Amino acid sequence: MARGRKKILTPALEDYLTVIYEIQQKQPAARISTVARKVGVSLPSVTNAMRRLADLGYVEYEKYGLIILTNKGKRKAQTMRTLQQRICNFFYYVLGIPIEVSEKLSKHLSHYLTARTRDRIKDFYKIIIDFDETKAKDLRNFIEESRQLINVTHLPAEVLEDIKAVETEEDEEEGE
Fold it and tell me: Which residues are in coiled coils (predicted)?
């Protein structure tokens, strides 16, 4: 790997992986020009990223050739897409955020989540995405477990005060 080049999978490189994965769902391999168009960057930027991904073992790529995800690359891209879809679904179906905004948020947030956080999101997702009264106990247990993980038995005073502030804001908005 060239001097100065990061030897880690960065958020930008993860984005390239997911784009290549999406392309490979429709055709056997991707091309630099197709990736550049989808990501909205220059051909040299994609070429540089492909070299880095190849060095990391995520893609098979030769200059002026096709781009193919390795098994490692495919697994990582599938994991990222699944996580992004879950986050998007949460923002869209649970919070009612427009789909375009939900998709952007999910792509940004997915890069910064640890394995433990991804597991917690998956557990929460199973409860909340199709929530009904039969899952109320599961939600209560999840919240209690979450607070145990961070050694909190009661909400701090500033959080309780913020809840009151939110309620006051809502009352003021309704009165307008």
Answer: none
Task: Tell me the mean pLDDT in the region 124-147.
Answer: 93
Q: Is residue 64 part of a domain?
A: yes
Query: pLDDT digit string (tens) for 32-82?
Result: 999 999 999 999 999 999 999 999 999 999 887 899 999 999 999 999 999
Give pLDDT, residue 173. Answer: 75
Domain ends where: 51, 74, 97? 74
Q: Could you tell me the residue range of the domain that residue 57 belongs to?
A: 11-74
Which residue spans within the chain are E strands per DSSP? 59-61, 67-69
| 3-state class (DSSP) for residue 9 | coil
Residues linked to residue 61 through DSSP beta bridges, in sequence order: 67
**Alpha helices of 70-114 — where are they, by DSSP H?**
71-89, 99-109
Strand runs (DSSP E) across 14-144, as ranges?
Answer: 59-61, 67-69
Q: Are 57 and 72 in contact (CB under 8 A)?
A: yes
Q: Quote the strand ranges of 19-77, DSSP E.
A: 59-61, 67-69
The CATH number given to whatever domain includes residue 17 is: 1.10.10.10
- Domains in the chain: how many in total? 2
Residue 81 counted as domain residue: no
The string of pLDDT tens digits covering residues 110-120 is 999 988 999 99
